[in-house]
Amino acid sequence: MTTATDLDTSTVETAYARWAPIYDAVCGPIMVKGRRAAASAARDVGGKILEVGVGTGLSFDDYGPNTEITGIDLSLPMLAKARARMMSGRYPHVKSVQQMDAHNMAFADATFDCVVAQFVITLVANPEQVLSECHRVVKPGGRIILVNHLYSEVGVAAAVERWAAQKTRSLGLRPEFPFARLQAWAQSNSDAILVERRKVAPFGIYTLVCFERTAVPLAA
Ligand SMILES: C[S@@+](CC[C@H](N)C(=O)[O-])C[C@H]1O[C@@H](n2cnc3c(N)ncnc32)[C@H](O)[C@@H]1O
Q1: pTM higher than 0.70 for the full model?
Q2: Which residues, in sequence order, are bridge partners of residue 67?
Q3: Which whole-number Å values give the CA distances from 44 to 38, 59, 62, 65, 148, in the listed order?
Q4: Which residue in 32, 132, 207, 216 has the fewest CB atoms around it within 10 Å?
Q5: In a 10 Å sphere around its CB, with 0-12 CB exposed, 13-18 middle and 19+ buried, how is residue 107 labelled?
Q6: Could you report how far apart the first and last alpha carbons of the chain are, in Å?
Q7: From the CB of 151, is ligand 1 less than 6 Å away?
Q8: Dist. CA 42–CA 27, nearest whole Å
Q9: Residue from 195, 171, 190 nearest 122 by CA
Q10: How many CB atoms neighbour CB 143 within 10 A?
Q11: 150: Cβ–Cβ under 8 A, 6 or more apart, which residues?
Q12: 173 C-beta closer than 6 A to ligand 1
């Protein structure tokens, strides 16, 4: 299912080619708390971690020796930065970064212990398809961890986000994505369960959402 407000893949590629040279300076500090919260939750799972939409690899500092990180991204200019980071030798836990569309991943089923996507799910062309791909490549018992700004849904903040949505689309940003859509995806999967939804400190502008792929399908 896509909606009229979903971004298309070519808009995202064009936008992130423009973002790449300035991304770390602009988005590094603004998103750091959300990025770290998601990486911390992934560290608690440990093992083989796939980072979807790895961008420039800003999160590499946030993982440690109990993890093996594989990163994918659509944008070659963003990935070039991630690859340079990886090659610096400072991140032995980063195994590879590859160009790949999260809608159709080349990994076998049940490859990873954990899939992380920081500030990605709201801007992919088909969020449900990407969630299903994440679910496919995570092992039973493994987790999908997302962090994003999610739509306020009511009040002045919601109105501002709806207005901003029209202006920020070409920048590859999407401020009005509802949590209900993530929840509906989990409810439509018999072996996916929402295990956590929490605001990230200090200001609560980002929400961390965690799904588990259950080892056995849930009863209907
Ligand atoms: C806002 S940036 C977030 C980057 C990084 N996760 C971070 O927290 O700094 C979104 C990233 O998702 C990538 N992306 C968007 N759609 C994608 C897709 N379908 N498959 C893979 N990556 C995608 C973009 O190219 C971009 O690098």
Answers
A1: yes
A2: 47
A3: 10, 15, 12, 12, 19
A4: 216
A5: middle
A6: 23
A7: no
A8: 21
A9: 171
A10: 23
A11: 122, 177, 178, 179, 207, 209
A12: no
Query: What pLDDT digit, counting tens, does each position of 76-125 carry?
Result: 999 999 999 999 999 999 999 999 999 999 999 999 999 999 999 998 98
User: Which of 35, 73, 79, 98 maximizes ligand 1 atoms within 8 Å of its Cβ, making it the mutation to test the pocket?
Assistant: 73
**Pocket of ligand 1 contains residue 175 by CB under 6 Å:** no
Point out the ligand 1 atom lying closest to the alpha carbon of residue 7. 16
Structure tokens at 168: 């920020």
Residues with Cβ within 8 Å of residue 209, at least 6 apart in sequence: 145, 146, 147, 148, 150, 179, 182, 194, 196, 197
| Torsion angle (degrees, nearest 10) of CA 44, 46, 49, 52 | 10
Structure tokens at 98: 């590859």
Number of helices (H) and strands (E) in the chain: give both, helices first: 6, 7
Percentage helix, strand, coil, to 5, in the chain?
40, 25, 35
Crossing angle of the two packed helices 23-45 and 76-87, in degrees rounded to 10: 70
pLDDT digits (tens, 9 = 90+) for 23-38: 999 999 999 999 999 9
Cα–ligand 1 centroid distance for 81 (angstroms): 13
CATH of 9-213, one of 3.65.10.10, 3.30.565.10, 3.30.2010.10, 3.40.50.150: 3.40.50.150
Give me 182's structure tokens: 């993530």
